Amino acid sequence: MTPFELLEPRTLREAAGLLASAESSVRPIAGGTAVMLMMKMGVLRPTRLVSLRSVEKRYSDIQAGPGGALRIGALATLASLERSPAVKSHAPVITRALKTLANVRVRNVATVGGHLAHADPHMDLPPILIALGASVTTVDAKGGRSLPVEELYAGYLETTLGRGELIGEVMIPAPGTLRTAYLKCTTRSADDWPALGVAAALDVDGAVVRDARIVIGAATDTPMRLINAEKILRGARADDAVLRRVGEAAAAESAVIGDQHGSAAYKRELLRVYVARAVRAALAAQ
Questions:
Q1: Consecutive sets of 10 residues in the chain, 286 residues long: mean pLDDT of each?
Q2: Are residues 164 and 70 in the same domain?
Q3: Which residues contact 27 (CB under 8 A, 6 or more apart)?
Q4: How many CB atoms are located within 10 Å of the residue 276 CB?
Q5: Domain range for 220
């Protein structure tokens, strides 16, 4: 690695100011699981790193928010998210997904904000958070803003965050009667990067699906909602015939890309199968 300067601001706004006023080779670092790996590979050569480890403690907290929402500080580690009783009660789909997200060493240091901001389409949490209707609150030198997680991504490893804008918190609305599931297909070990991830959140009235949000990751450049598949489910009974149509719609509307985890043709076939499985899993969830 090339030499670099390390700065340790005491507030997140101060950190945002340092990033906004500095040259493009300055980068923030929280857990460092992605940044340090990219530096070791020579892909990233920052002259200065702005550490977020000493900022306000509230950005590491996980607690109930207004109206039954769940507030997750961006500097909360994935391990703390996995162990949190509040997360397990509010969004058990996250707790289940974290058990096969990377490995325990990574989860002990990786942060929620870094996980989201890295914008690798293979990440597990973005599809889940989008399906749950989550939003992020950002911090910059002048204030900040709130935006849905689904509006956070602009392309492969690219977000809509501005220069000097940092994720401060994630807000997940009250779950109500939602039934949720997340399934991923890995071509090697269970905690490997997925070839496909599918998150489903359903509002069900008896056997009828009143509303649905289905989001995929790993098969496209950014997490993607399957709008046409959702339309087929709304107002329908999720029987085998409907789920076949949902799978076909998912495969047809997705701009699938191939990579080392599977060709585009392979992932399209996975979509046909796994979207239906995720819907069934969500219907069976309590």
A1: 91 95 86 93 92 97 94 98 97 97 96 97 97 98 95 97 96 96 94 95 95 98 98 98 98 96 97 98 92
A2: yes
A3: 19, 35, 44, 46, 48, 49, 50
A4: 23
A5: 180-284
